[in-house]
Every structure is written in C-alpha cells, then in structure tokens.
Amino acid sequence: MVHRAAELALPAMKHSQLVVTVARETPTAEVLGVPVTSDKAVPAELGVSRAQLTAAGFEGKIGQTLIVPSSGKTVLIAVGVGAGNSATAHDLRNAAAALARAASKHASLSTTLAAVGKGDRAEVAQAVTEGLMLASHRYAALKSDENFASKLKSAVLVVDAKSLGAVANGSRRGSVIGEAVCMARDFANMPPAHLTAKMFADHAQRIAAESGLRVEVYDKDRLLAMGCGGIIGVNRGSVNPPRMVKLSYRPGKAAAKGKSAGKGKKSSLPHLIMVGKGVMYDSGGISLKPSNPSHAMMKADMSGAAAVLATMSTLKALGCKNQVTAYLMCTDNLPSGSAMAMGDVLTIRNKKTVEIHNTDAEGRLILADGLSLAAEQKPDAIVDIATLTGACAAALGPKMSGVMGNNAGFVTQVLEASKVVDEDVWELPLERSYRRMLDSYIADMKNVGGGEAGAITAALFLDEFTDGLPWAHLDIAGPMWSDADAGWLQRGATGYGTRLLVNLAENFRRR
Fold this sequence. Notes:
The chain is of the alpha/beta class. The chain has helices spanning about 50-55, 90-100, 120-135, 165-190, 195-210, 220-225, 230-235, 250-255, 305-320, 365-375, 390-395, 410-420, 455-465, 500-505, and strands spanning about 20-25, 30-35, 65-70, 75-80, 110, 155-160, 215-220, 245-250, 270-280, 325-335, 345, 355, 380-385, 400-405, 425, 445, 470-475, 480, 490-495. About 55% of the residues are buried.
C-alpha cells in the first residue's frame, strides 16, 4: 500500500551538509584546492611545473580540476581559474563547484579561491560559497548507496587579513542563499507520495517560524469561500486537498511594531508580491500526458512555489529592507471521475470566467487566483514564477527562462537580477494582438490559445488577473531541471529562480 504524504511523519530538514568558514591561515584539511591560472606561474604548493600540468591535460581553464600526486597526507587539487586575474564571480562560482565535485570523496577542504579573480571580495566570496554548497548537494534521502552523496562536510576559504571581513560577510550571504537553493531542490526532487500540498504547507509553516515570517494556510473550504475557482477546479481530480500558503515579511522595526498597511493602502515600504506555481504532481489531468520517462520530473512542477518559499526563508537573515509577500498555490493535477473536464467553466477569484480547452494547462489557473489575491493588496509590483509552458522550454532550451510583463521598468529589474546571479533570462514580447487567441464564445476566455506562441498566450492569460499593476512572469519550464552536473547545477531539480528572486527582493525599487 502506498502511503500518501499526509500519513508520513514531518522530518526536520537540513538541506546542505556543507559548512563554509573563513580563515587567515590554511588549516589542516583532507584536501587543498589550489587556484591555477592558464598563463601565470604555477603555485609552489602544488610541487609541479606547467609542463607537467600540460602533459596531464590540465590547461588552467575555468572549472578544470586535476588531482596532483603528493607525498603528504593532504590531497592536492589544482582548479583552473582562467587567464591572469580576470576571473569574475560567476567564473569562480563554477570553479568552486568543480572543486567541490573533485573533493567529494573527502570530508574537509581548504582553498584560496576567494582570494583570486577580479571584483568585490564579498561578491567573490559569496559566489565561491554558493558554488561549493550547490555542487556538493544531492537529494539523497531515498538512496541506500552511501557513496551517492558527497562526503564533503566543511570548507575553509583562506584569505589575507585585509580581505577577511569582506570575505566573511560574502561567505555568510552565500551560505544563506546556498541553503535556500538546496531547500528548493529538495522539495522539487521529492516524489509525489512524499510531498502533497498539505505536506508542503506544513513545511512552509515550520520554515516561516524559523525565518521570522508571518504565515497563513488556506484549506479547501476557505479557498471555496474565497471564490478561488482556479485552484479548486484543478484540484477536483485529486484525493489530496489543495493548500494556499501566504507568507509575509516586513523588515526590522516595522515588523516588530506591526506597521502593516491595510488592504488597498500604500505602505511606506516598497512592497513586492511573489506568486509561485505549486503543482505537486502534474499528470495532465483528463488531458493525460503520454507515458514518457521524462514525466517523472513532473513532481518538480512545483519548482516555482519551492523557489518562492526558499527565497522568503532568506529575507530576515539577509536584512532585506523591502516588504515582501508570497502566495504558494499548491495542488495536484490528476485524472479521476471528479476531475475537471474540457468544456468546464471556472470562475477565478477576480470573477473572470475561464473555459477549459486543455486540463494540462492547469498552472495558469491556479496562478490566476494567486495573482488576483495579490492585486487586491495593491502592491508596487507582482512577480510570478512557474514551470508553465513546454513552448518556452522549446524556444529557449534548458539554460534560461523566459520573462514577460506589462511594465518595462519592472521587467528590467528582473533582467538585472538575473545578470547579477547568473541565472539566464530572455525577454519575450507580450504581444497584445495575440489576446484574441484566448477568446471564448461562452466565457471570458479560454485557458489555452492554440498551437502557436504558447508561452506568450499563457502570459497574456495571466495578465488578465494583475489589475494593471506592474507585473512580470518568469516561465522556468526549461531550466527547472538538469540532466547532468554542470557548473553550479546538479542533476535533477535545479532550484533555478531562487537566487534571482532573492536578488530581486533585496534590490526592488518602487517605480
């Protein structure tokens, strides 16, 4: 008998096992990671010449690694950092990731990676810390093979006294953000039987308590009473009830004094709302997906909600100065005798009606309720994040997400955040003339627009629920999953969008 998540005990979860610290002197560790350029002198501690490295196939390219034979107990690993001192923080994140993989059979590591390259030392240290943590992370909860997970438990960044403070601050930020990305990955990697909407809401309550957030959980009865017909309709085929989780963050003294603006009132703080798609498993519903091995990854169709929850968990620790609210829209999409059917009409929270032409276009229906509720608060901007369309994945591939929106200034902020954190985003046009593809002769609109421009028509559908407020939509259907280890990515759910949203929340500007 398969036990659903509601029957399983709620475990305490530590998402990254790697602890990164900073020191002025190289400590005793099992592994010493030595940065090597492609053109400068080889560091003496490696005990080899450039010719010997070249003969072994090591050129010093960014992210190359080579275990160098040594007579001592410490394992020496050369890690390439490119030409001169030109490596950027992005380069060093990937170099650190490569080093973590090369050292994965050992428990401890020290390295001077945070002392090389160009740019602000805190930014470099943050990137190196993220690279080490994200590359050493594995979702190993269900693995009996002890060798599957990395054995790396501690890493020390060695720097000079002048850089110590900046590197310590940057590494602390990197640790907070790295843990959050690992959290998002763990949730998205969990099998459907281990993470229903209720279980995810339970985790969100625990995380909110640990992170200084206010949390409200809405069950099926409350969602019905609120008129959230999108999420209720999608949930009709599932034996597991839906949940909507609202998370609220206010910084410092404002939170302590409860200076919360009422509904529709403008806060003195810039207010950003995030809405995350949380389809815990997507079978397609009555529009059943074909039996394809790739659809096992549909457990990760809640990656948007996972990224939003992970982002919210960091805000207090990072000292975010903006007000941030989040809605996690959570349900399964499954077929049954009670499931939503083609031709059904749903009434969304904002009273607009939607005729169902494809039950596998369910994410936009639950986001519609979330966006409607967000718009009622009259925030300064709304961003949603969702594994929404195969069309976007087909257009942009697995390396980047698409972004569309109704406000150029806010979309620019999203693009700026993506560049800072090295999570690639490409802007697609919100072509208004395509809105007619969504026209329905019995309802306000259909939930799909036909076989062309699927990513754009999906965004146009969502725009109907934003009440004209500044809004951006991130379609992460492509980069939510990786088939192989690459740079800071690990095979499986990537946690993509978490670092982008953290940066956006911290640097959000009211327009």
